Amino acid sequence: MNLLSSWVDCINNTMLDDLINLYDNNSCLISTFEGIIKNDNKGIKTYFKNLIDNTTVDVIEYNSDIIDNKISIEYGLYIFNTAEKKIRARFTMISKDKHIIHHHSSIFKNEK
Fold first, then answer.
1. What is the pLDDT of residue 69?
2. Could you tell me the residue range of the domain that residue 91 belongs to?
3. 15 sits in which H/E element
4. C-alpha triplet 97, 98, 101: angle, nearest 5°
């Protein structure tokens, strides 16, 4: 299972601690809905704690590049499914040694 699949599985099954364990201790998250930078696991956990109970994710486009045997980039489009609506967003995840070190996600301009 690739890192993105694990991430989606954690979101869709409300596994907050498992989700946070996918992130490196020094990772950076540029959040989808707040548009702010979280650069520690405490901030990342707080962000997802507010999101995970009310949202599921479906990946609609996925690409992956391996930089070397330790670093990979996963990027594409996903949909956040909330009770009110479906929200399309683009994402990039950079991982090193099977942990996310950088995750950027942003909503399409017309989705807000």
1. 84
2. 3-111
3. none
4. 80
